[in-house]
Amino acid sequence: MILSAEVECILYDAQSLKEKRSVIKRIQKRLANEYNVAVSELDFQNLWQRTCIGIVTIASSKVIAEQTIQQALSFIDSFPEIERTNTVTEWL
Protein backbone atom coordinates (compact mmCIF):
# COMPACT_ATOMS: atom_id res chain seq x y z
CA MET A 1 0.00 0.00 0.00
CA ILE A 2 1.28 3.46 -0.92
CA LEU A 3 -0.09 6.50 0.90
CA SER A 4 0.85 10.10 0.16
CA ALA A 5 0.04 13.34 1.94
CA GLU A 6 0.34 16.90 0.66
CA VAL A 7 0.68 19.27 3.58
CA GLU A 8 0.35 23.03 3.15
CA CYS A 9 1.90 25.05 5.95
CA ILE A 10 2.50 28.63 7.03
CA LEU A 11 5.75 29.77 8.67
CA TYR A 12 4.82 32.95 10.53
CA ASP A 13 8.26 33.78 11.91
CA ALA A 14 10.29 33.28 8.73
CA GLN A 15 11.72 36.58 7.50
CA SER A 16 13.63 35.19 4.51
CA LEU A 17 13.90 32.17 2.23
CA LYS A 18 17.03 31.18 4.12
CA GLU A 19 15.13 30.99 7.42
CA LYS A 20 12.27 29.09 5.78
CA ARG A 21 14.59 26.55 4.19
CA SER A 22 16.39 26.04 7.49
CA VAL A 23 13.13 25.06 9.19
CA ILE A 24 11.93 22.92 6.26
CA LYS A 25 15.26 21.04 5.95
CA ARG A 26 15.23 20.25 9.69
CA ILE A 27 11.67 18.91 9.49
CA GLN A 28 12.41 16.91 6.33
CA LYS A 29 15.50 15.25 7.80
CA ARG A 30 13.80 14.30 11.05
CA LEU A 31 10.70 12.96 9.27
CA ALA A 32 12.83 10.80 6.97
CA ASN A 33 14.99 9.51 9.84
CA GLU A 34 12.31 8.89 12.47
CA TYR A 35 9.40 7.66 10.33
CA ASN A 36 11.17 6.20 7.27
CA VAL A 37 9.10 8.24 4.81
CA ALA A 38 10.03 10.10 1.64
CA VAL A 39 9.70 13.88 2.04
CA SER A 40 9.99 16.77 -0.40
CA GLU A 41 8.93 20.40 -0.70
CA LEU A 42 6.40 20.39 -3.55
CA ASP A 43 5.31 23.99 -3.97
CA PHE A 44 5.82 27.60 -2.88
CA GLN A 45 9.64 27.32 -2.98
CA ASN A 46 10.01 31.07 -3.57
CA LEU A 47 7.54 32.23 -0.91
CA TRP A 48 9.16 32.66 2.48
CA GLN A 49 6.10 32.18 4.69
CA ARG A 50 4.34 29.33 2.89
CA THR A 51 5.22 25.78 1.88
CA CYS A 52 3.73 22.54 0.61
CA ILE A 53 5.44 19.37 1.80
CA GLY A 54 4.84 15.94 0.26
CA ILE A 55 5.16 12.81 2.40
CA VAL A 56 4.97 9.26 1.01
CA THR A 57 5.08 5.90 2.76
CA ILE A 58 4.89 2.31 1.58
CA ALA A 59 3.61 -0.41 3.89
CA SER A 60 2.26 -3.94 3.78
CA SER A 61 -1.16 -2.86 5.08
CA LYS A 62 -3.38 0.21 5.00
CA VAL A 63 -3.43 0.44 8.79
CA ILE A 64 0.36 0.67 9.08
CA ALA A 65 0.56 3.24 6.25
CA GLU A 66 -2.15 5.39 7.88
CA GLN A 67 -0.45 5.18 11.29
CA THR A 68 2.89 6.23 9.79
CA ILE A 69 1.40 9.24 7.98
CA GLN A 70 -0.58 10.30 11.07
CA GLN A 71 2.56 10.09 13.22
CA ALA A 72 4.43 12.20 10.65
CA LEU A 73 1.63 14.80 10.62
CA SER A 74 1.60 14.93 14.43
CA PHE A 75 5.36 15.41 14.32
CA ILE A 76 4.95 18.39 11.97
CA ASP A 77 2.34 19.83 14.36
CA SER A 78 4.86 19.63 17.21
CA PHE A 79 7.03 22.37 15.67
CA PRO A 80 6.01 25.79 17.03
CA GLU A 81 7.42 27.69 14.02
CA ILE A 82 5.14 26.00 11.46
CA GLU A 83 1.35 25.69 11.22
CA ARG A 84 -0.34 23.03 9.11
CA THR A 85 -3.26 24.59 7.22
CA ASN A 86 -4.41 22.01 4.67
CA THR A 87 -3.67 18.30 4.33
CA VAL A 88 -4.74 16.01 1.49
CA THR A 89 -4.02 12.27 1.64
CA GLU A 90 -4.27 9.94 -1.32
CA TRP A 91 -3.89 6.21 -1.84
CA LEU A 92 -1.82 5.29 -4.88
TrEMBL record:
Residues in coiled coil: none
- Pfam families reported in the protein's UniProt record: DUF503 (PF04456)
Superkingdom of the organism of origin: Bacteria
Q: Which SUPFAM superfamilies match?
A: Hypothetical protein TT1725
Against InterPro entries, the record matches this protein to: DUF503, TT1725-like_sf
Q: Which PANTHER family match?
A: DUF503 DOMAIN-CONTAINING PROTEIN, HYPOTHETICAL CYTOSOLIC PROTEIN
> How is this protein named in the record?
DUF503 domain-containing protein
- Source organism per UniProt: Halobacillus campisalis
Organism taxonomic ancestry: Bacteria, Bacillati, Bacillota, Bacilli, Bacillales
